[in-house]
Amino acid sequence: QVRMVESGGGLVQAGGSLRLSCAASGNVFFSINAMGWYRQAPGKQRELVATISSGGSSNYADSVKGRFTISRDKNTVYLQMNSLKPEDTAVYYCYSTGFWGQGTQVTVSS
Fold it and tell me: Which band of pLDDT confidence, cut at 50, 70 and 90, is reported for residue 71?
């Protein structure tokens, strides 16, 4: 049974930090495929935030470069978010191998 369990969302003031985590299990390809974080704000389409390959190569959306850091430890992917802005408010989803996490709410107050 595939599981992708996210945690770490919450409410934070602008300029603050949060760390998201997503533990994936139940599929052998999680360890060899890329993992990523996406987000969806109200009324907007889901957008890519960051991805990381099994070898550790990462890519970021321009809007989060220099503020967010993606990392992974085998089948767990993390997103360290610093210098948060109100426009970062969204539901954040982890993704890998065709599977999505349940989403975790991040709210940044001004």
Answer: very high
